[in-house]
Amino acid sequence: MANPNRLQRTLGKLDGLPGPLRRAARNLALRRAVPFTGTAGLDFVALTPERSEIHIANRGKVQNHIGGVHAAAMGLLAETATGMVVGMNVRDDCLPLCKTMKVAFKKRATGALTAQAHLTDDQRHLLATQTKGEVIVAVTVTDEAGVQPIECEFVWAWIPKDQKPANGRNPS
């Protein structure tokens, strides 16, 4: 594949740290870059160019009225997992944008949740070589019981940074 992008290079600087310290440093760096992930307390368990794994604990600040992880927090978890794996692959001269997000609630979640997202080699090649495009990013969200309470589909687009939408809207 192509040379590491900025996110890969930044996280690569943490590789020399011992495991628990590396995870804490990764969480700190990514929560600073995307503050809302820190507000929700997302835990960046694993992050490679091929896959991401992100965890959210079922705790008070992200709970709904029945004591489970709130629907919005579930969506954030899945969106972050897909966005991070895209972010690990998009060229430095391009801006990744979530184009569509579909979340179907299937079952009541039990406890904490984990989202795992991945890209195929072909998708990674497109992100590394094309200045503009879009990919459907596969993501699975499971709870502590191994149940998949939501099914998601995320389409991520990327455009050259110099074409950043002035109105903040995603490209069509």
How would you summarize the topology of this molecule?
Layout: H1 6-12, H2 19-33, H3 35-40, E1 43-47, E2 51-56, H4 71-87, E3 94-105, E4 113-118, H5 121-129, E5 133-143, E6 150-160
Mean pLDDT: 92
The appropriate CATH architecture is Roll
Number of domains: 1
Alpha-carbon Rg, integer: 16 Å
The fraction of residues assigned to DSSP E strands is 25-35%
Low-confidence stretches: none
- The count of β-strands is 6
Write the CATH fold name. Thiol Ester Dehydrase, Chain A
Q: What is the overall shape?
A: globular
Q: What's the helix count?
A: 5
- Give the biggest sheet: 6 strands, antiparallel
Helix/strand order: HHHEEHEEHEE
Give the strand order of the largest sheet, numbering strands 1, 2, ... along the chain: 1-2-4-5-6-3
Protein name: DUF4442 domain-containing protein
InterPro entries: DUF4442 (IPR027961), HotDog_dom_sf (IPR029069)
Pfam families: DUF4442
Description:
- With 172 residues, the protein is of the alpha+beta class.
- The protein has one domain (6-163): Thiol Ester Dehydrase, Chain A.
- Helix content is 31%, strand content 30%.
- It contains 5 helices and 6 strands, in the order αααββαββαββ.
- The model has no long low-confidence stretch (mean pLDDT 92).
- It holds the Pfam family DUF4442.
Compact overview of the structure:
It is built from 5 helices and 6 strands. The protein has helices at residues 6-12, 19-33, 35-40, 71-87, 121-129, and strands at residues 43-47, 51-56, 94-105, 113-118, 133-143, 150-160.
